[in-house]
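step=predict obj=Ribonucleoside-diphosphate reductase n=225
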Amino acid sequence: MIQKDGKYQFEKDKEAVHSYFVDYINQNTVFFHDLKEKLDYLIKNDYYEEEFLSKYTFEQIKSIYKIAYSYKFRFPSFMSAFKFYNDYALKTNDKTKILERYEDRVSIVALYCADGDYEKAVEEVHTMMKQEYQPATPTFLNAGRKRRGEMVSCFLLEVGDSLNDISRAIDISMQLSKLGGGVALNLNKLRAKGEAIKDVENATKGVVGVMKLLDNAFRYADQMG
């Protein structure tokens, strides 16, 4: 909120973050007695891939988590906390319980991206916890998960003016969106609404109709990213 002097009431935002954790996050996070119990559960129930974790000793994995939690990270605002737990944190299959805190996600991303190189994993967990580097959304969201989209970011597609070109672009866009990729399409080659087709005047529908088709396709196929 903005006060009469024009300054923001940041203390209210901090109160909102505190309340969010006490009243919601802590109440809905699955409890594990220790890290081994947690990882065993997440692997056994197909939440985490086992392959990348098997490249480290348990003591190495434990030390990465210890580094992450040593920063005593606190979200600077309610929106940042809400964004993470709403969009990034791993949840149970029915989406009702939380399986990861911020430190857990950072640790898994570091271990996955380091691909068995312990020293690199140490460097990456420090870098992310210091907020010096943030992986792109597909990587931060999907790294280490057993059931996930791909760790890809953006694709740019060129759309031709024929019906076949448009249909092909929609199909490819749906496949990329299903994998979690962001898709941009260049529609400059499409004729404007009302132009002629084979000498028939006022025949073309223009880009708006194609955009509506794409919008419906993305809403249907946006599954894992």
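step=describe
Residues 10-142 form one domain.
step=end
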